[in-house]
# Entry
Amino acid sequence: MSEMIPFPLNSRHSLLRSVVDDLERTHGAAANELWRRRIAAIVAELRASGLSDDAIRGEIYDFQDAVQAELRNRMPLGTTAGSVA
# Structure
């Protein structure tokens, strides 16, 4: 039996933009800590809504993919991750 998720994380565009905006302004260990705090808050929210751990894990993985895609989309053409413009 699958769970219905009415508002999938990867479709919550304002949340996605907020996380990506924060990550673009933060680097290194601070970015890692920021990511962990944001994900912990999201996991707590999903648990409070009654989702199973498996459903939460899937949501977090999908959200992570969406964040990575948005970061790539915002990268100037001709640059790659780790390169200096």
Q: What stands out?
A: The helical segments are 13-25, 28-48, 53-74. The CA atoms of residues 46 and 59 lie 9 Å apart. The chain has three helices and no strands. The first helix runs from residue 13 to 25.
